[in-house]
Amino acid sequence: MRYLPKSDVIRREMLSTLGLENVDQLFAHIPEYCRLRRPLNLPAGRSEPEILEDFRALAEDNAAGYASFLGAGAYHHFRPVLIEALISRGEWFTAYTPYQPEISQGTLQSIFEFQTMICQLTGMEVANASMYDGSTAMAEAALMARRLTGKSALLAARSTHPQYREVLATYLQHQPGGLREFGYGESGAVDAEQLERELRAGDVAAVLLQSPNFFGTVEDWEAAARLAHAHGALLVAVIAEPVSLGLLPPPAAADIVALEAQGFGIPVGFGGPYAGVLATRQKYVRSLPGRLVGEARDRQGRRGYVLTLATREQHIRREKATSNICTNQALCALMASIFMAVYGREGLRELAKQNLAKADYAARAFAAAGVELLFPAPRFHELVARPRRPLAEIEAELLAARIVPGLPLGPWYGELEGAALICVTETATRDAIDKLAAAYAAGARRPARQAKEVSLHT
């Protein structure tokens, strides 16, 4: 009766109101041959504690019962219970963007706060109300750069998330100029000389650079911006792990920031939904795609929030629109806002430090075990390691021990066949890290090169 609170008394009252004596009369219009006169062939109902116990047992058989070292753009962080408590309130359940400000002030204000905190984190002056995810944010940033510069070619680092680059290539498949890529050096950071050669070829609208990049390496925003600006191009800073902004310098030298907010309290959730973000300079605001919430005053001087500068395809002529993004991820953005508010400036910094410390411990454990570590440049919480035997063997063993051992890089980077990307967040335990390092080191078939130990502060 907890979830179906219609008692026999209530049912009789409903039938009486309809002028009926019993339920059979209510369904009399349904042909007899369509009506089932026996109980459904279903097991008996169970109590709520029994059902919860069944779900707990099922959870132990899926990723919830594993120690996972997967990252690559989808990061497992501790989610404060306050997030679920607040987003479960009915006021936040909306099927679409709140166009009517007179009945949507709460949602609009939450989006405005989200935009404000994103600007504080990134060093930008304006941010939009969120986008589908980091990949579409990067693609829209690239198109925005083309509009602003009047140039058509785009340069993306190969160390940028490969799936982000695939989405961008899809956006550009019928566009002039196309997408060119530049490589990375032995350190794992961008190959500045190759980037400069590509820039000299001319007609470059923007350089797209991720940091920490797909390998976990920290890039130099300032140097990349100087190089791009010297050749008349914009710098699009791509960030797949927002927690890194708790410790690393913000990309204030960039012109546009494309960010994935999943790491801020949004569950991994089989790949989505997530929340992408675009932030930029105030002077570029009219070319900013997606929704933007602004603060205003009514005739009585009362503060209010509204959608503003809505140059979208539903509002104006399609050829004048700034994007084809049709909605924002309001509920996911709210999760990120609650996460940022709960942690605060110092809390986010401490969280980033914990991630850095765990990754540093993992790097030292791998090096001590004789496992080859690639890319000695400063890193955040991801690293690339080459085990001493095939990854498939290690994966089978560790999965049996309920450990997900990282992401094979061969499918995206042929030159890194046999290597794996390992992510170590604050959720990783020392015991799990030690087991992972031991598995990577076991069964040596060739001598492993000793990796040079480098910390973020090098």
Are there runs of 5+ residues with pLDDT below 50, and where?
Answer: 444-458
As a percent range, the share of strand residues is 5-15%
Helix content: 25-40%
Element-level helix/strand string: HHHEHHEHEHEHEHEEEEEHEEHEEEH
Shape: globular
Rg of Cα set: 26 Å
Architecture of the largest domain in CATH? Answer: 3-Layer(aba) Sandwich
CATH class of the largest domain: Alpha Beta
Q: Total number of β-strand segments? A: 15
Strand order of the largest sheet: 2-8-7-6-5-3-4
CATH superfamily of the largest domain: Type I PLP-dependent aspartate aminotransferase-like (Major domain)
How far the N terminus sits from the C terminus, by CA atoms, comes to 63 Å
| The CATH topology of the largest domain | Aspartate Aminotransferase, domain 2
Main pleated-sheet profile: 7 strands, mixed
Class of secondary structure makeup: alpha/beta
Please describe what this structure looks like.
The structure is a single chain. The chain is globular. It has 458 residues and is of the alpha/beta class. The protein has twelve helices and 15 strands. Strand 3 (153-157), helix 7 and strand 4 (179-182) form a beta-alpha-beta unit. Helices cover 34% and strands 14% of the residues. The protein has two domains: 63-78 and 348-441, Aspartate Aminotransferase, domain 1; 81-339, Type I PLP-dependent aspartate aminotransferase-like (Major domain) (Aspartate Aminotransferase, domain 2). The protein has helices at residues 8-17, 23-26, 48-59, 81-87, 105-122, 134-149, 162-172, 192-200, 221-230, 330-368, 391-400, 430-441; strands at residues 67-68, 126-127, 153-157, 179-182, 204-210, 234-239, 256-260, 276-280, 293-297, 303-307, 372-374, 382-386, 403-404, 407-408, 420-423. Strands 2-8-7-6-5-3-4 form a seven-stranded mixed β-sheet, sandwiched between helices.
